[in-house]
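Give me structure tokens for this 227-residue protein.
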Amino acid sequence: MKYSAQTLREVYWKSCSHEGYLNILVYRPIALVCTVLFAKLRATPNQVTLLSFVCSVDSAVLFVLGEYNYALMALIPFHIGKILDCSDGQLASLTNQRSKLGGFLDPFLDRVTDSLTMGALAVGYYLHTGSAWAMYLFMMLVSVWFVGAYLDKYNEEGARNLDTLRQTTGFLPPALRRFTKWDGGFTGLVTTLAVVFWLQPALMALSLVVAALPLPVSFVKIVRSMR
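Here you go.
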């Protein structure tokens, strides 16, 4: 099965419409190559989503061991999972295989993957150093995620606290918003830096700040909407 260059460009740019620069320039181009291969193999987007999840679980297993060399090795399946996470949506668009199950499965497994990765990094850091700071910060992060998910239920505008900083960066120029967007590309970069330089507590602290920033804005909007 062949796809025209025009079709592939449309699929690529459609998938980049709300992405940050790191996703646009790194993950999405590689994902498009994988997407064409999956289409030729007649794979479904949900199968690619599950394959991405398996890669992420593999990386979490290596992260949790608490050994520096294993953590570096874990970055390979970690980034493969990120690429495949971009590919499933592109495949759905390219082959017109959108489904309600896929619409649920992709973001749900993204949240599970985020929790597994962060938790594994925190435990691995504790086992390696004896410091529990990363674990404390991770527990705080999970609490903020929970509050954000609860607020999402009442947000009439459909904004999602767990995915972007759109609510708190709206005053920035579009180019700068894309650079600061907390998406798969950005988290891939900061996670890699945290592993290479063994700065897991810093990663947890940064993630905590990013997750907490939109909460006051969401809370105020919800309260105003209920008056």
